[in-house]
Amino acid sequence: MRRKSNFSFGVAVFVFCFLITGCASPPNQPVREIVQPPPLFPPQTAMQTGNYAGFFTENSEALKSCQDPEKCAIALFNLSFLYCYAKSPYYNPQTGLKYIEDLLKGSPESVWAYQATVWRDNIYSNMKKKIKKRPVRGDPKAKETPEPQIEDPAKPEVSQENDG
User: Fold this and answer.
1) Type and span of the H or E element at 146
2) pLDDT tens digits for range 74-126
3) Largest interatomic CA distance in the chain
4) CA dist., res. 48 & res. 160, Å (int)
5) Is 51 part of a structural domain of the chain?
6) What is the reported pTM?
7) Is residue 28 part of a domain?
8) CA distance 108 to 112
9) Cβ-proximal residues to 119 (8 Å cutoff; 6+ apart), any chain
10) Residue 69 domain-assigned (yes or no)
11) pLDDT 10s digits, 21-77
12) Which structural domain, as residue segments, surrounds residue 65?
């Protein structure tokens, strides 16, 4: 009988100690602010906030003073975005294409150049579709508007010389 009471006493002490230590409140930790990583797509910030002017100024200054080719490539990509994105107040695809060409010439193997290549191809495709949708010349209902010239540097020009 004594064994049973010693065993019960031991279990009771263990449970009591467990409850006391297990129920103790942890020391207060200071609350740390979670810092969000920068977006993978830099123009995302301008798109979310609508601060295109600040984004333009930031990237124009970065382009003027850049020493690192990677930072120059990012600035060129961001500026091309500002001019190629239809919802941007700076929307002008021809100017955007100039920035893309500068990027492709300056950093042809960068990640930004590969993304810019996709943008360039889509812009050329959209421009060609717009030209095809224009009314036929000579149509009395058509307004006289000059057709924009599109140069696609991605496609080499084919020379048609006769070696007669």
Assistant:
1) none
2) 999 999 999 999 999 999 999 999 999 999 999 999 999 999 999 999 988 98
3) 122
4) 50
5) yes
6) 0.60
7) no
8) 9
9) 80, 81, 84, 96, 100
10) yes
11) 665 566 676 777 887 777 778 899 899 999 999 999 999 999 999 899 999 999 999
12) 43-133
